[in-house]
Design goal:
This is Beta-ketoacyl-[acyl-carrier-protein] synthase III. By secondary structure, the protein is α/β, with parallel strands linked by helices. The chain has helices spanning 20-23, 31-37, 53-68, 92-100, 116-129, 153-156, 206-210, 220-241, 259-268, 280-283, 290-298; strands at 3-12, 16-19, 42-45, 77-81, 106-110, 135-143, 161-171, 177-185, 193-195, 216-218, 251-254, 307-314, 318-325. The strands form 4 sheets. The chain has a 5-stranded mixed sheet, sandwiched between helices. Bound molecules: acetyl coenzyme *A (ACO).
């Protein structure tokens, strides 16, 4: 039996730091509100004209290739999870593949909002377990600043830009890597969290621009409630069927949307916060990138055999949890 493991991580965040002080000069908000309600002090923004999600994804993948020493010609596939693709088509993954100069790979985008990284890691794991593929780059990347309305104080403080990439490979070693997962999508989320325009229903027009329909809309309280319930129930289910508890879980790695959501999930799981990976304060919500960015920043804390539960919730609604043994 082949098990799928992460053999390296690369990450990239833009240099530009948008802090709460600067935001409070753009809209009617302040550091105290944002810190107490959301727990974000600053976020990174890709400000350079003409650069999109693929730029950050490529930077993360380049670091990954350098760190792992993997031969670019040995990569079988590139999967980019994003909700902020460079273009309607071609896929962001194909742009990344081209810029990296990969010759023997295929590429596709994975569209599952904030769950994108977890869903696509699972799909990549299945591809590796099949034995037909040996090396797959899985990237979570989002340029959320491209869909955030910087005139809307209820959303503009929440999001940032970033990307992180992992290399997924096979091993015959037992009891390691992607161990289990539980994912669901319930389709109820459309009215509560969406970017209405730009797709095939609401094609670009003066109307969509005038009504700011190309920006992210969310009903924060509803999203908050669903996020807490789904992520904690999904983690509890994964924990129960794998005999995991607060003593043998090393980290829960949650999607980073709001520190209060993360704390509520930890409380429901009866886990102390030092067993929860948190980086929301300096990166904000980078959608598909939050979980791999947290792994990238905290890799030095992980030891072989550590039990991780990763969990996410996002537009759709999509949600789930997966169990990974490091
Ligand atoms: N600064 C100051 N005041 C603000 C701000 C701000 N940035 N934003 C909202 N307020 C005000 C509101 O106008 C409201 O004022 P009012 O009472 O006079 O009407 C008051 O603060 C309370 O607003 P609520 O929306 O009730 O605040 P809440 O505590 O629910 O926090 C938040 C809002 C942060 C959006 C929260 O609901 C949340 O985090 N929801 C989940 C968001 C999420 O997870 N989204 C993404 C998931 S999917 C993905 O990652 C793409």
């Amino acid at each position: 039996k082949i098990n799928a493991i992460i053999t390296g991580i690369g990450g990239y965040v833009p240099d530009y730091v948008l802090d709460n002080e600067e935001l409070s000069r753009m809209v009617d908000t302040n550091d105290e509100w944002i810190m107490t309600r959301v727990g974000i002090r600053e976020r990174r923004i890709l400000t350079e004209e003409g650069l999109g999600t693929s730029y950050m994804a490529r930077k993360a993948a380049k670091q990954l290739l350098a760190r792992t020493g993997a031969d670019p010609d040995s990569i079988d596939a590139v999967i980019v999870s994003t909700s902020t693709a460079d273009y309607q088509f071609p896929s962001t993954a194909s742009v990344v593949l081209g810029k990296l100069g990969l010759k023997n790979a295929f590429a596709f985008d994975f569209w599952a909002a904030c769950c994108g990284f977890l869903y696509s890691l699972d799909v990549a794991a299945g591809m590796i377990q099949s034995g037909r593929y040996k090396k797959i780059i899985v990237i979570g990347a989002d340029k959320m600043s491209s869909v955030v309305d910087y005139k809307d104080r209820s959303t503009c403080a929440l999001f940032g830009d970033g990307a992180a990439a992992v290399l997924v490979e096979g091993t015959t070693e037992e009891n390691i890597g992607v161990m289990d997962s539980y994912f669901r999508a319930d389709g109820k989320g459309l009215p509560f969290l969406h970017v209405k325009a730009g797709g095939s229903v609401c094609t670009p027009s003066h109307f969509t621009v005038d009504h700011r329909l190309h920006y992210l809309y969310q009903e924060g309280r509803t999203v908050f409630r669903y996020a807490v319930t789904s992520m904690s129930d999904d983690c509890a289910l994964i924990a129960e069927r794998n005999n995991l508890d607060k003593d043998n879980i090393r980290f829960v790695v949650p999607h980073q949307a709001n520190i209060r959501i993360i704390e509520a999930v930890a409380k429901r799981l009866d886990l102390p916060m030092d067993k929860v990976m948190v980086n929301i304060e300096h990166f904000g919500n980078t959608s598909a990138a939050t979980i791999p960015l947290a792994l990238w920043e905290n890799e030095h804390l992980l030891k072989k055999g550590d039990n991780l539960i990763m969990t996410a919730f996002g537009a759709g609604f999509v949600h789930g949890a997966s169990y990974y043994k490091w």
